[in-house]
From TrEMBL:
Coiled coil: none
Keyword DNA-binding belongs to the record: no
Residue span, Acylphosphatase-like domain: 6-59
EC number(s) recorded for this UniProt protein: 3.6.1.7
Highest taxon listed in the record's lineage: Eukaryota
Name by which UniProt lists this protein: Acylphosphatase
Family assignment from sequence similarity: Belongs to the acylphosphatase family.
Catalytic residues in the record: 21, 39
Source organism (scientific name): Funneliformis geosporum
One Pfam family linked to the record: Acylphosphatase
Tagged with keyword Ribosomal protein: no
Enzymatic reactions: an acyl phosphate + H2O = a carboxylate + phosphate + H(+)
Keywords: Hydrolase
A single MF term (Gene Ontology): acylphosphatase activity
Length: 59
């Protein structure tokens, strides 16, 4: 049985200006996941990813 999950995340450290969002988006598309990823005003990157549990774990 396929299990679908939704996770929210916030990444700290040097994540802006290093293509982190682009990499995350490309990997999510490759894994057939949906959601979003964005820069925050605090200098972090946050997002939500939804899809099969195993693929979320790969992300």
């Amino acid at each position: 049985m396929t299990r679908y999950v939704s996770v929210s995340y916030e990444i700290f450290g040097r994540v802006q200006g290093v293509w982190f969002r682009k990499y995350t988006k490309d990997k999510a598309i490759e894994l057939n996941l949906v959601g979003y990823v964005k820069n925050t005003e605090r200098g972090t990157v946050s997002g939500i990813a939804q899809g099969e549990r195993e693929k979320i774990e790969c992300l």
